[in-house]
Specification:
The complex is a heterodimer of chains A (245) and B (618). By secondary structure, chain A is mainly α. Chain A has one domain. Chain A has 13 helices and 1 strand. In chain A, helix 1 crosses helix 7, helix 4 runs parallel beside helix 9 and helix 7 packs across helix 13. Chain A starts with a helix and ends in a 6-residue tail after the last helix. Chain B folds into 3 domains: 103 residues, Glutaredoxin; 236 residues, Rossmann fold (3-Layer(aba) Sandwich), CATH 3.40.50; 109 residues. Chain B has a 7-stranded mixed sheet with strand order 10-7-11-12-22-21-18, with helices on both faces. In chain B, strands 2, 3, 4, 5 and 6 form a 5-stranded mixed sheet that branches. A 4-stranded antiparallel sheet of chain B has the order 17-13-19-20. Chain B is globular. Chain B starts with a helix and ends with a helix. The chains are: A mainly alpha (245), B alpha+beta (618). The interface between A and B is large, with 75 and 69 residues.
């Protein structure tokens, strides 16, 4: 008897390669990433020993692109009418959610792998801080995981993939754009401000990408993924009109 | 029923968000501010010595940054540095347990913050549109009121950021009165009416960096006696040498326990003169350091390239000593990674009773020499032809410590009316002293070791060193004065900060660098000729002069055109490299993605026969 998680994961992951959508998404990701890196990130003019220009705008690029990945997870199934069939399998909801999430996250890893030529080319011309770049790539991978998890939860709520895309984009925009620090600094003073600084996505991301890796930062992303996936399980089970399977 | 389910969902959602915030709160309490520095050069971490000092700080200090956020667009590199600086200050705050606080004043043009910044002397600079005004400076202030203004932070001085901040914090936390450092420079003047010290034009940077921590006092080379309040004396040997009274003054100063840093030379490259070392050489020989007269040291292994006669030459008497040629166990030379010497003198040591001699810098075992007279020749190719390889390591900086004996038998002015006003003659040291001899007066010239572009209105924090000559002198003064805290605080060595554009420009221009320099030199000569012809013509007009003037003008214009052509070609080459780089990255990324997708697509086909779920789903 095959492991249901692995079977589902394989089905979801290899499903990306049935048509041109994977190539399309990866190409768009590469064009956006490299374009933003060169133009907005001023790639050729600033010191890029940690590929600052590339990583600085990755949240914005992923915010645009990952809803397109996550919208397929649930709302596309609903649109095609295959969700009900999927839910009849003797598999727990959490297994379903996890398999779909990890399949999408692995796809994100594939997207990131395609950025490696930039790293290699750069080392031909200048000194690269490899350990910093590796950690920055891990951070982008964690960010992609968090964004996919949030997108997956939103996708479970919507029947229409376009709505799922817009909904995910909005949620990610709120998540990445909202910085409560100035308000909290005024209300609760410097100490509270410093603590709440830890909730801001930009600070968490910025710290890790610049090479300051803390348990706090890693836990932030893991918690975000966990909470979003939990919400996803609840949405799927509620959608099916059941409690725990 | 449906409504209550919706309410339940909302409640669950809100509880989840709340618990996320709560967990993060706990997370930040438990792990907040504790980071692992993932950078290769540990540029985000403080040195252990800094952490130790911060933990023991007594006086609260606030760092106020005046920072214009709008500069991000116009000056991305500066903005990048400002972010790194803020991260650094967070660490200062953390490790000092709040004794070092920081605040960021967002400084918009013409705002109250901008006016305050102007009042403090913080430098402003303009945006690329010429209208926006930006600030990036700071005020470091102790709670008791005294403080330091940093007019501008310079990213190129990043290696020194930690040591600069530490020095300020040491001073603000210390009750020690700043010590007096005497400075005897050939071109050193002071404005007598205002007691203001006038720094020498081309050798001011090494003194500028002393002004934050010490009180500088000018000493004339004609002085017959050095005041007892002077802790350390820096002497740069004048080309005409020191008079016997000056040598006597140094002798007695060291014997009274004073510390001496003496820069002597075989050939002053800046004046192209051979200094008269007579008196000083005798004095040093008496203390176990012999200067080889009229001989310039060279080092084949550590020689630098120079331009001479339109050619780029590896010029052995111009030496850039790397870390392995410096004494890593001595606090003065421990942190230096590169010292530049220009035609230095060779220093030989011989043991003397009561004195301990330490070599701080020496050439590699591929040392050689050339006579100082030959080294003066403008054609450096001829100098290299006369150069002799000795296969020996020559000392270029030597430190002697202990009890010294006088070169003199009695007061040099004995029998004159002045002798009664002078301090008693000492035949040997009253207390131990220290003497550091550096075999090169060019060592301290700004253009040898630093960029003076940023020091205007930003004297200390605008010095951008490319060699550690200044740091070596500063640490020598710290060592002489017993500034232990300063000595523990050294600058850092980070990965080189370069932009790809700079790298590309270097690569493109490398092909025609020699021709380019040649053209520049020829143009300079033509311009000088033009100037003299104009002067000639002003004296009296002749057709011959007119014709010569026209011809020279045409030739100069032709050379300028050729230079512009090289500039244009360089820009074009850089642009082509940029496009090639971007295209190379993009095409390789696409090829990689196609390759991966091809493999995965093939695996998918195999998967269809294996995975029952997929078959059902399809």
């Amino acid at each position: 008897m095959p492991n249901p998680f692995i079977s589902l994961f394989r089905k979801e992951f290899y499903g990306w390669f049935s048509g041109w959508q994977a190539f399309f998404l990866i190409s768009v990701y590469l064009i956006l990433s490299l374009g933003v890196c060169v133009y907005a990130g001023d790639f050729f003019n600033v010191n890029n020993q940690n590929l600052y220009s590339l990583f600085k705008y990755q949240p914005q690029v992923l915010m645009l692109l990952l809803p397109a990945v996550s919208m397929h997870l649930w709302s596309d199934e609903k649109r095609r009418g295959t969700l009900d069939l999927l839910l009849t399998f003797p598999v727990e909801y959490k297994t379903l959610v996890l398999a779909k999430f990890f399949a999408a996250w692995t796809f994100c890893l594939l997207m990131l792998v395609c950025l490696l030529p930039l790293v290699v080319f750069y080392t031909f011309f200048a000194v690269l801080d490899i350990s910093n770049v590796v950690w920055a790539l891990i951070t982008v991978f964690l960010t992609a995981g968090a964004f996919t998890a949030v997108g997956s939860a939103v996708s479970a709520l919507c029947r229409n993939p376009v709505l799922a895309y817009i909904g995910s984009f909005f949620c990610l925009w709120v998540l990445t754009g909202t910085d409560p620090t100035p308000l909290l600094k005024e209300v609760a003073g410097l100490f509270a401000g410093q603590i709440f600084l830890a909730f801001g996505f930009q600070d968490m991301y910025g710290n890790m990408v610049s090479g300051q890796v803390g348990v706090q930062n890693v836990l932030y992303f893991i918690l975000l993924i966990f909470m979003a996936l939990w919400l996803n399980v609840v949405f799927v089970s509620e959608r099916n009109g059941q409690g725990e399977k | 029923m449906k409504l209550s389910r919706m309410c339940g969902l909302w409640l669950f959602f809100l509880l989840l968000v709340f618990s996320f915030l709560l967990l993060n709160f706990g997370n930040s309490i438990l792990f907040g501010g504790r980071f692992f520095d993932a950078t290769a050069d540990k540029r985000l971490s403080l040195r252990p010595e800094t952490k130790e000092f911060l933990a023991e700080m007594k006086t609260p200090v606030t760092v106020r940054l005046y920072l214009s956020p709008a500069m991000e667009k116009d000056y991305p590199q500066l903005w990048q540095y400002s972010k790194a600086l803020i991260e650094f200050l967070k660490k200062y705050q953390l490790f000092s347990d709040g004794m070092v606080g920081y605040e960021v004043q967002k400084t918009e043009p013409y705002s109250a913050a901008a006016k305050e910044a102007d009042r403090l002397g913080i430098k402003h600079f303009y945006g690329t549109d010429g209208r926006n005004m930006f600030y990036f400076g700071g005020l470091v202030m102790a709670d008791r009121g005294d403080g330091y203004v940093i007019p501008a932070f310079v990213p190129l001085r990043r290696n020194y950021l930690e040591s600069d901040l530490n020095r300020i914090l040491f001073n603000l936390n210390s009750d020690r009165k700043p010590l007096k450092i005497g400075v005897m420079l050939p071109h050193y003047r002071s404005d007598v009416s205002s007691q203001k010290i006038i720094l020498p034009e081309n050798a001011g940077n090494f003194l500028r960096q002393l002004t934050n921590d010490y009180v500088l006092v000018q000493i004339s080379p004609q002085a017959v006696q050095i005041g007892v309040d002077i802790d350390t004396l820096i002497v740069v040997l004048p080309d005409e040498g020191l008079p016997p009274t000056g040598v006597y003054a140094l002798d007695q100063f060291v014997l009274r326990g004073g510390n001496l840093i003496l820069l002597t030379d075989a050939l002053n490259e800046h004046t192209n003169r051979i200094p008269d070392m007579e008196g000083v050489a005798q004095l040093l020989k008496n203390w176990g350091i012999e200067i080889e007269r009229d001989v310039v040291a060279g080092d084949r292994k550590n020689a630098e390239e120079i331009l001479s006669g339109g050619r780029v030459l590896l010029y052995y008497p111009q030496i850039n000593l790397p870390a392995e040629q410096l004494n890593r166990s001595h606090p003065i030379s421990r942190s230096a990674n590169s010292l530049i010497f220009q035609s230095p003198a060779i220093l030989k040591t011989e043991p003397k009773e009561g004195l301990k001699t330490t070599v701080l810098a020496s050439t590699s075992a591929e040392g050689g020499h050339v006579s100082a007279g030959t080294a003066r020749l403008p054609d450096k190719f001829s100098v290299l032809q006369a150069y002799e390889d000795d296969g020996l390591a020559y000392n270029l900086a030597v430190l002697t410590e202990g009890t010294f004996r006088s070169l003199f038998k009695k007061n040099i002015l004995d029998g004159t009316k002045y002798s009664e006003q002078m301090l008693t003659f000492l035949p040997e040291s009253l207390k131990p002293g220290k003497v550091l001899v550096i075999g090169d007066t060019d060592f301290i010239y700004d253009d040898v070791w630093s960029d003076a572009e940023y020091v205007r209105d930003n004297p200390v924090w605008g010095i951008v060193p490319w060699a550690d000559n200044g740091d070596f002198i500063l640490r020598a003064v710290d060592y002489m004065t017993g500034g232990v805290q300063y000595l523990q605080n050294s600058h850092r060595a980070f990965l080189p900060e370069v932009s790809l554009e700079g790298v590309f420009r270097e690569k493109v221009s490398a092909n025609h660098r020699e021709d380019y320099f040649n053209l520049l030199q020829r143009l300079r000569e033509k311009e000088e000729l033009l100037e003299s012809l104009h002067e000639e013509q002003d004296k009296g007009f002749t057709l011959e002069k007119m014709r010569l003037l026209e011809e020279t003008g045409k030739e100069a214009a032709q050379l300028e055109k050729q230079i512009r052509e090289y500039d244009y070609k360089t820009e074009q080459g850089v642009w082509v490299l940029k496009v090639m780089f971007a295209a190379g990255v993009f095409v390789s990324s696409i090829v990689l993605s196609v390759f991966l997708l091809f493999i995965l697509r093939r695996r998918r086909l195999a998967e269809r026969y294996r995975n029952p779920l997929e078959e059902n789903h399809e």
